[in-house]
Amino acid sequence: MIARAEPWQTAEVSGLTRALPVIKPEVVVAAIKKSKRPILIVGHEAASVDLEQGKPIDYVIQIAELTGAQIVATAHVIGEFTQRGFNRASWMPIMDISNRLRDPNWQGLDGQGRYDLVLLIGFQYYLEWVTLSGFKHFAPHLKTISLGRYHQPHANWSFPNVTPVDWERQLKSIVKQLKEK
Amino acid sequence: MPKKDIHLKLEELKSGLTEVKGLELSIGKIIEEGWAEPMGPTPYPSVTTLREWDMKLLSKYKPMYLPYCDSCCLCTMGKCDLTQGKRGACGLDMAAQQSRIVLLACCIGAATHTGHARHLIEHLIQKYGSTLPIDVGKSVGIEVEAPVTRLVCGIRPRTLGDLEDVLCYLETQITQLLAATHTGQEGNELDFESKAFHAGMIDQVGMEVADIAQLSALGYPKADPEAPLAEIGLGTVDVSKPVILVIGHNVPPAAEIMDYLDKKSLYDKVEITGICCTAHDLIRYNPKAKIIGPISWQLRYIRSGVPDVIVVDEQCIRADVLAEAQKVKTPVIASSEKNCLGLKNRTLDPATEIVADLVSGSTKGAVILDPEKVGEVAARVAVELAPKRAKFKVLPSIAEIVKEAKRCTQCSDCRRACPNDLQIPEAVSKAATGNTNKLADLYEVCIGCDRCESACKNHIRVHSLITGAAEKKIKEEKYKIRVGRGAIQDIEIRNVGAPIVLGEIPGVIALVGCANYPNGGAEVAEMAAEFTRRRYIVVSSGCSAMSIAMTKNEEGKSPYELYPGAFEAGGLVNVGSCVSNAHIAGAAIKIANIFAKRPLRANYEEIADYIHNRVGAVGLAWGAITQKAAAIASGFWRLGVPVVVGPHGSKYRRMLLGRSDIKDDWNVYDARTGGLVNVGPTPEHLFCVAETKQEAMVMMAKLCLRPNDTSKGRMIKLTNYIDMQKKFYGVMPDDLHQLVRRETDIPITMKEEIVKILENKGWKESTIPDPTLLPRMIGTRKSR
Ligand code: SF4
Ligand code: SF4
Ligand code: SF4
Known about the structure:
Largest sheet of chain A: 7 strands, parallel
Strand order of the largest sheet of chain B: 3-19-22-18-17-14-15-16
Bound molecules: iron/sulfur cluster
Shape of chain B: globular
CATH architecture of the largest domain in chain B: 3-Layer(aba) Sandwich
Distance between the termini of chain B: 32 Å
Distance between the termini of chain A: 25 Å
Number of domains of chain B: 4
Low-confidence stretches of chain B: 1-9, 24-30
Number of helices of chain B: 29
Strand content of chain A: 5-15%
Shape of chain A: globular
Helix content of chain A: 25-40%
Strand content of chain B: 5-15%
Radius of gyration of chain A: 15 Å
Largest sheet of chain B: 8 strands, mixed
Oligomer: heterodimer
Radius of gyration of chain B: 27 Å
CATH superfamily of chain A: TPP-binding domain
Number of domains of chain A: 1
Number of helices of chain A: 7
CATH class of chain A: Alpha Beta
Number of strands of chain A: 7
Low-confidence stretches of chain A: none
Largest interface: A-B, 42 and 46 residues
Strand order of the largest sheet of chain A: 1-7-6-5-2-3-4
Order of helices and strands of chain A: EHEHHEHEHEHEEH
CATH architecture of chain A: 3-Layer(aba) Sandwich
């Protein structure tokens, strides 16, 4: 694993408040466990990237099933969830779900109260970058985790830049630990 | 002429106290009534005149900021840390800082179009006189010839000279707006947003002024749906001839090249080719010219060694054009004072001397600010230099690619520099084994920015490797584009006005800006085809209009050969260059004026209110785009027209989003009764990013919904929205209960299924109002 916690795209100079690199998946597992209302936002790349034993979306579904976390599929990804038999995902553009999450009075997709932890995966690097920056500045009530392959300094926690092999290993390990606990 | 100088000229004035000779005085201007329509409420609006209207839109579509960096470094009190609620030394917070950057971008855009218009008009007045009549299509019955200018300024320009008055107004507004961004001026984000809208509106006028001036003077097709087809693509160039390349947006120097070649009977012996909007305007001037492609083709074309001389004017020209041209021994002529490239100004030197210096290579280029001289010098240099250069190129052969690729250390610096995270190291590593297919594949998704090459510490010419590997593909780039037609005819507006406003034509989709995004060109073309087939009206301009052309069906036909160029259901309209975008706004304005008979003159709020509530138009800018595109989008926002951008558009750092889940946000007045009616999220957003082409299409279909749709219209719009969501997402939309107002809105073929969905959601029928956001419109008219 390349344990470098610097932004993937070289010109994206990271901000004054920076993410903690997730070297061990325990960090993510602990954050999910601690969260009362986690939400996973899943972009189109989660279904287009091939890892050795699956696609990122397959791990996302397992995480959602193990934790009961809400899933919001963006772009056209919702079909990929239903095809895999996962039928409780909502869908809307990333900007819409971001806008709602930033509103401290929003009571969630089910009206049961606001979310406290946002996990993102499957977006173009820069799109996720600005989304996370928006949360960092305007949604102090949220904690954020990037589950993408590249380091996102605007999140609270993010993997360092990792190879596809290590990325899959991390995702698998998160699933495994969620199962164990 | 609507305005007139009071001009006093005294040859001699003698009094007991003083003696004055040869005094000339211009005392202001008075408005001359040469136009029967009475003056509306907001002629020449100042920065705050339309603020209330802006605030109405901004309360429905609230800004969502996406800071691109944590600090502000605009003045020397900074850098200031603006993270998480902190304020800068001047008291500014992050939201205001982001909106200030939006305003700055819009000011730059508006200044660029207006500056372009100023240069163009000065030149055209010098050449054709200030009394040259404005004519954008008199012969096809266009009477409302400058809808944006009439709407904003309240004047009806009749000659080129009249446009100068308009420019003075625009320049004043841009100066005031720019001043508002200074430290210690505006501090409220919504006021910054309102000012950004103002900049957008100013920009729209600036574009209209530029385009109607060139249309009137240069003999372009005038609102012609059957404007000729021209050639586009690198493969269309006859490389056996001397080749001239023009890049930029201001056409006079390029037009003068054509004239010179014509005068010297050299036309058939020289190829004249263009990139970006100068190319668009050049084919409007003479369809024998050839377009190479949009902005991303600059480096690959220059490095191919084909152009023997390069003429740049203004906007979207690579800053390294001179260095790149040097590599292939091609001289550069800079023809605009906005972009002198560090070259010596040779405007006053004899043409023969400049030609000799450029041909001998004793100078790498020259600034020539006289378009006519540019015409002569460029043509002569091309002819004299072509045999000497022998198309000297720097694109590597396959053997050279393989050799160079072997130096790669797989450090990934190129990929990390690539704006689109393309898999360059993988392709280079494959090339090192002798297989260049992966590199050639990158050509399809590469936007030609060269960041990869600049980043490579091993000096591997990554972009050239990609281009070299794709040589075969490049030779096959041969397509047809319809020449920009300019304005939309009044009669076309009369024909489509009712079906658009009632919703029977499901929408007007405007594909504008650059599509420089991986596969962006092909995706824009795909979207154009999808909406054209669904009988929307598709309009395009600028680089998007080019990208649409650069695809073919199985029979080898480009979209412009397949779809009619008329402003009608199923039409594919190329209005022309970037400044022709004004005709798209103009068409929406003309629907309100010509079809609905709303007064046009200086009546901005009412017309915008009409368009926002009734005209189902949506803009899309798909690629990574410039400040000009920010200003163009902003002009549409103020008119209440939603704009969708591709993923890179998120870097504009703020969206204007509605909240479909907050019901009260969607109340409008019913102009008939004065009551408030809930119309649901229509249109849902004013500015939003789409992550993929599929999402963009679904989003656009939905954003075409308007409160005024009749049941039949809503049914047609919903049919398309549902159909596209099923096709691209594989699911039924989950928001139909917010969009169906009456049972008659429900698409017949899906009635059973939808009724069930509505029942589950506890849906109730609602009324269709005569919608307006303006209380003053209540009870004033019978609306169409
Ligand atoms: S403009 Fe204001 S926020 Fe920006 S650097 Fe100056 S003092 Fe700081
Ligand atoms: S930057 Fe150069 S050396 Fe590094 S991977 Fe890219 S091409 Fe290879
Ligand atoms: S030139 Fe192409 S491959 Fe290189 S950085 Fe730009 S987009 Fe990426």
